[in-house]
């Protein structure tokens, strides 16, 4: 199955736990050296009570359930996480395209400096690095990097 076979739709309250579980699996696989600031149960509560109800949350699903998520907050791409089995299959590209369609005026995001794969991914999609920090402002205390995407103006 490729990403074209998936349905991308707005998340429902009933998707919160499955989306949190994708986040947990993805974070663990992509960022094994990054200290998680919250327990699994705290992450699940955050998705149930904050992320899905308060932010523009999208999920990608197949017949087995949720396999990816995208979270937007104003002009910020807050979260883009894929089940590890879906990395490299075009789903992230679909989510970035959706994010740009939903925020045609531009987007910003943060990623950890140790996440070279994410940096290459966002740069391939036209995001430009604008800032690096020592990580003291994020919960993980992990050095991070800010990216900005601005649409091309005619």
Task: Explain the layout of strands and helices.
Blueprint: E1 7-10, H1 16-30, H2 40-54, E2 56-62, E3 65-73, E4 76-82, H3 91-102, E5 107-112, H4 116-124, E6 128-133, E7 144-149
Antiparallel strand pairs: 1-2, 2-3, 3-4, 5-7, 6-7
Total beta-strand segments: 7
- The CA-CA distance between the termini, in Å, is 38 Å
Total individual domains: 1
CATH level 3 topology: Aminopeptidase
Major beta sheet, strand line-up: 1-2-3-4
Let me know the largest β-sheet: 4 strands, antiparallel
Question: What general outline do the C-alpha atoms trace?
Answer: globular
How are helices and strands ordered from N to C?
EHHEEEHEHEE
Q: Hey, roughly how much beta strand do the residues contain?
A: 25-35%
CATH superfamily: Gcn5-related N-acetyltransferase (GNAT)
* Integer average pLDDT: 95
Give the CATH level 1 class.
Alpha Beta
Number of helices: 4
SS-derived structural category: alpha+beta
Low-confidence spans: none
């Amino acid at each position: 199955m490729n990403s074209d076979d998936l349905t991308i739709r707005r998340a429902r309250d009933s998707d919160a736990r499955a989306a949190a579980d994708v986040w947990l699996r993805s974070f663990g696989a992509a960022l094994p050296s990054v200290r998680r600031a919250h327990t699994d149960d705290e992450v699940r509560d955050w998705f149930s009570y904050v992320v899905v109800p308060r932010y523009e949350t999208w999920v990608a699903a197949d017949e087995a359930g949720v396999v990816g998520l995208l979270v937007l907050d104003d002009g910020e791409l807050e979260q883009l996480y894929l089940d590890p089995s879906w990395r490299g299959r075009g789903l992230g590209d679909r989510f970035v395209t959706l994010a740009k369609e939903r925020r045609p005026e531009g987007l910003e995001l943060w990623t950890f400096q140790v996440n070279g794969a994410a940096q290459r991914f966002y740069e391939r999609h036209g995001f430009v690095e604008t800032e690096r920090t020592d990580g003291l402002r994020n919960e993980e205390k992990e050095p991070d990097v800010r990216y900005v995407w601005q649409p091309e103006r005619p």
